Amino acid sequence: MSSLLEQKIAESVDLEFLNKKYRTMTPEERIREVYYEFDRILLSSSFGTTAVFQLHLFYKQQIIQPVHFIDTTFHFEETLAYRNQLQQLFDLEIIDIKPDTEWNKITHEAELWKIDPDHCCSINKVKPFEKIKEGYDLWISGLMRWQSSHREQLNIFEKRKGIIKFYPILDVSEKQARNYIKKYELPVHPLKPLGYESIGCIHCTLKGKKRKGRWAKTIKTECGLHL
What we know:
Elements: H1 4-12, H2 15-23, H3 27-37, E1 41-44, H4 51-60, E2 67-70, H5 77-90, E3 94-97, H6 101-110, H7 112-115, H8 117-133, E4 138-140, H9 149-152, E5 157-160, E6 163-166, H10 174-183
Parallel strand pairs: 1-2, 1-4, 2-3, 4-6
Antiparallel strand pairs: 5-6
C-alpha cells in the first residue's frame, strides 16, 4: 500500500480482536468469514508442495478468488506444470506477476543468486509484488507454523509493510495437511516424491526437509515477501 488512506485502513484494524475471534475457527470457517470482514482481498500462491491444500479449501467452498503467482523466470518446469494442472483442476484465474524485464535480465546474466541472493529475490519477487499489493487491504498467504522457526512466531492476522496478512492454515500441522491431501486425492507437486519439501527458484532449491533445502549453506531463510 502506498497511499496514506490505505495505510490508515490497515492501522485501524484490531488485530488482537481478529486473532482471538479466528483462533477457534477451522481453516474453512476462517476463509469464509474473512470475506465479511474485508473487501479488497489478495490471494497469492507459489504452487509449492502445500499450495494444493489451501487452494482446495477455496474450491470446496466455491469461493472464486483470483490467484497471484510470482513468475520469477527461475521456476522449475515441474512447478509450472503443477501450476497449470491446479489451474485446470480448480478452474483458477491466475494472474502472473513478472519482474522488470531489464533487471530480470541482469540477474540472469550476472547469476546474481550466487553472489547476492537477497538482491536477486528483491528484484524478482519482492519489488514486483509490492506494486501489486497497492489497492488491497488484506493479503491471504498459505504460510504454516511447522515450516520454519520464523513462521512459528506468526499470528493468524499480522500487519506487514502497510497491509494486513492473513494466514488461514497457519496452525494446521504437517500431518493434518498431508492427510487432507490424501483424503481428497489431490495431486502432489511432482518434485515432492523426489525429496523436495519446499520449492522456490531452481538455483536456490535443493532436496531437504521442511525449508532446509532453500538457500542451503547460507543464513537466508526467507525470500523477503514475508518479513
